[in-house]
Inverse folding.
């Protein structure tokens, strides 16, 4: 179909020369906005796709000016609003899945138009490599980016087909700006003064990320978090004022899934913004108190993101133990370890015990020698956790063995007097494991880790443990346990 016929279908002219692209875009925009019929809007999208695909590049992209760039942007924004999610007026911020039934088809139709426009811009760039045409690509890139990310993730308002089309659209946005990746699209290039589109994207999202409005569109929080985690050092510092408040806002919600998402964003900020910038204006203090309050929850999914975030944040707020001076005064590391150990002692849920045990290892490593203040309670927790199986994977007990190894290595001068209780606990553990019906490889791994703990205790006691273990009656010990004991008694003592 030729362009003249397409223009006649749109009812704005009979030849390409009789109608400028500005007039055509304006007419299509007006038609699309006044239509309230889904079928008529779909027809306009199809006609626009035909027009963009068949019109000469010289007609689509004449001497570009602000008016034409604005008209293209206005039309693209109008099309993307057609596939926008329905507004949620409830405090929950969620709607039934049936409310999104027509969104995937709409998103695919809009993506088709935008992909054709993107292809034509790229053809024009290949022909002319004009900075003016490239400026049109950069003008459209933020809208392309937000729309594609909205429909990129597996959500109630997407389908496999719409997600596939959204991935193509995001790739086209990368190509429109001459970037090599999504990260470069958002951040820009270190060796180039030209910034990425993160700033315009965040500015577009800002009105929908306020306390009053962020739950009205369910996709906004997902778009924000997806974009945020793509941007790392050193670029994120420049946008700290734009990403910090929304992340706090989302993390402060009453719904666990939103808390998890918000803390995930805050943790990314902690990892990718210099400590000096985080400490400025008491941001780190505010963040610490906001996230620490989540430690009182019983939701494993939330604790799983809160603990690593706090451990990394404490390294921003507190000096490393080696630089803390003498005497080393208690600080927030001590507060957090006391809190975790108290909750670990009381916790009965296996999923929470696994999360606590895994992060206990990280906290012990980060605290270093100052864990000697907490050895009594730490010992009780380790002994208690070694007694409870979390088969079939035994992740909890593997983490506790790792925590015990780190504790012995760091606090070795204080471990000899604790050797008796810990040795008894490890021997009971070895007997339990040897009789459990675990996978052979896992059983061997557990036995090896426990044996290593015994070896470390032997070194701390300067060989005293070897003497005690040699007195064990081998006739009363299972073969796997006996092999572990022999490994310890036969090991040379490090000087």
């Amino acid at each position: 179909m030729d362009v003249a016929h397409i223009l006649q279908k749109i009812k704005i002219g009979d030849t390409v020369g009789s109608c400028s692209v500005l007039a055509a875009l304006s007419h299509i925009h007006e038609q699309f906005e006044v239509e309230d019929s889904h079928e008529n809007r779909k027809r306009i999208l199809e006609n626009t796709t035909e027009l963009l695909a068949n019109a000469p590049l010289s007609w689509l992209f004449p001497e570009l000016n602000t008016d034409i760039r604005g008209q293209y942007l206005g039309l693209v924004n109008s099309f993307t609003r057609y596939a926008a999610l329905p507004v949620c007026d409830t405090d929950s911020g969620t709607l039934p899945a049936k409310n999104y039934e027509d969104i995937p088809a709409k998103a695919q139709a809009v993506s088709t138009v935008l992909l054709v426009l993107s292809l034509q811009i790229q053809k024009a760039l290949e022909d002319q490599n004009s900075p003016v045409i490239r400026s049109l690509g950069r003008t459209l890139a933020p809208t392309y980016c937000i729309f594609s990310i909205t429909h990129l993730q597996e959500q109630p308002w997407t389908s496999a087909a719409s997600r596939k089309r959204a991935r193509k659209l995001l790739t086209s946005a990368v190509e429109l700006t001459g970037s090599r990746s999504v990260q470069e699209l958002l951040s820009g290039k270190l060796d180039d003064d030209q910034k990425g589109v993160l700033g315009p994207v965040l500015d577009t999202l800002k009105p929908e990320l306020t306390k009053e409005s962020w739950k009205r569109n369910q996709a906004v929080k997902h778009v924000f978090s997806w974009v945020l985690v793509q941007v790392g050092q050193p670029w994120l510092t420049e946008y700290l004022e734009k990403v910090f408040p929304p992340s706090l806002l989302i993390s402060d919600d009453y719904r666990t899934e939103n808390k998890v998402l918000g803390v995930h964003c805050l943790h990314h900020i902690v990892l990718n913004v210099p400590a000096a910038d985080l400490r400025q204006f008491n941001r780190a203090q505010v963040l610490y108190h906001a996230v620490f309050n989540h430690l009182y929850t019983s939701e494993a999914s939330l604790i799983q993101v809160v603990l690593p975030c706090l451990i990394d944040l404490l390294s921003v707020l507190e000096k490393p133990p080696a630089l803390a001076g003498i005497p080393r005064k208690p600080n927030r590391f001590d507060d957090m370890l006391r809190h975790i150990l108290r909750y670990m002692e009381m916790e009965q849920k296996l999923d929470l015990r696994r999360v606590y045990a895994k992060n206990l290892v990280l906290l012990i490593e980060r605290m270093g020698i100052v864990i000697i203040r907490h050895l009594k309670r730490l010992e009780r927790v380790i002994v208690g956790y070694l007694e409870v199986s979390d088969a079939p994977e035994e992740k909890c007990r593997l983490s506790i063995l790792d925590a015990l190894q780190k504790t012995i290595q760091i606090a070795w001068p204080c471990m000899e007097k604790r050797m008796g209780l810990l040795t008894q606990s490890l021997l009971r553990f070895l007997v339990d494991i040897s009789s459990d019906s675990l996978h052979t490889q896992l059983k061997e791994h557990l036995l090896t880790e426990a044996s290593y703990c015994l070896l470390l205790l032997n070194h701390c006691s300067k060989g005293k443990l070897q003497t005690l273990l040699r007195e064990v009656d081998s006739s009363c010990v299972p073969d796997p346990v006996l092999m572990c004991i022999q490994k310890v008694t036969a090991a040379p003592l490090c000087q």
